[in-house]
Structures are given as structure tokens and as C-alpha cells.
Amino acid sequence: MEAQRYQNILVGIDGSDQAMSAFKKAVEVARRNQGKVYAATIIDQQVPTMMGYAPLDSSILEQEKDTAKNLIDDCKAYAKSVDFDLVEGIVAYGSIKDALATQLPDKYDIDLIMVGQSGLNAVERFMMGSVASFVIREARCDVLIVSPEETKA
Prior knowledge:
Blueprint: E1 8-12, H1 17-33, E2 36-43, H2 47-50, H3 58-81, E3 87-93, H4 96-108, E4 112-116, H5 122-126, H6 130-138, E5 142-146
Parallel strand pairs: 1-2, 1-4, 2-3, 4-5
Helix pairs in contact: 4-6
């Protein structure tokens, strides 16, 4: 049986250390397989409304887009620092779970999704991240969950 060669790797990035760790590992997997990494930030337009804020206006949306672009730039800078150039940044809108599990994998022919075990949300850290858990259940391709790295004393 031939080993799976992952050519298109999707990584959800949200500014957390775990997401960046997942991205760094994705770069190494892509390098070994002559593949490409898709670094995706998803702007969930329902979050401000659910948190009791007014509906998402254009200034909040612009701030979110700027933050997303900065995260992608950070990923590309890291990749360049380790001599890897095959990184595509994606800013998507909607449900983070659906985007990572089905929408983006279908659109970009993804064969591996890599996500951090939990993201920035404190409730998600309590359980194994709800996004990671959803992606495991719903993705139609392989999923690799990146555990938190141990800090060295």
C-alpha cells in the first residue's frame, strides 16, 4: 500500500499559538510531499451579534479583514524564513466550522486539514476545541489535530 501524499493542506489560523504550530507542521508536511499550504482565516459574521453587539458594520468587518490579512502575512513570513514558498492565504466569511470542514476543502481540493487542538476561545479550550471536534466529524479528507507544544522550563 502506497503512503498518502498530501498535496493540498488546509490550516485554520486564528492568531493562537496552536494554530501557528499547526501551520508550521503543515509547512513541513507540504515540503516533504512537494505540496501547498492553504492558510485560512474565517471571519464569522455572527459573533458580534451573538455577543450582544450591534450587527456587523463595515468598520468592524474592515478590522477583521485587516487582522486576517496580518495573520496570513505572518504565516507567509514564517514560510519564507524556512525557504518554503507554496503558501496561499485565504480570507473566508461564514461559519468557521463549515468553512474548514467542507467548503474550503471542496473548493481547493484539500486532502489534509491541520488544526490546533483548541483556539482562542476559553470555552473551546475547556473541551477539545469545538472547531477541531466538528472538523474531525464532518471532513471528507484526512484531519490532523495538532496538540499544544510542551513548554520547556
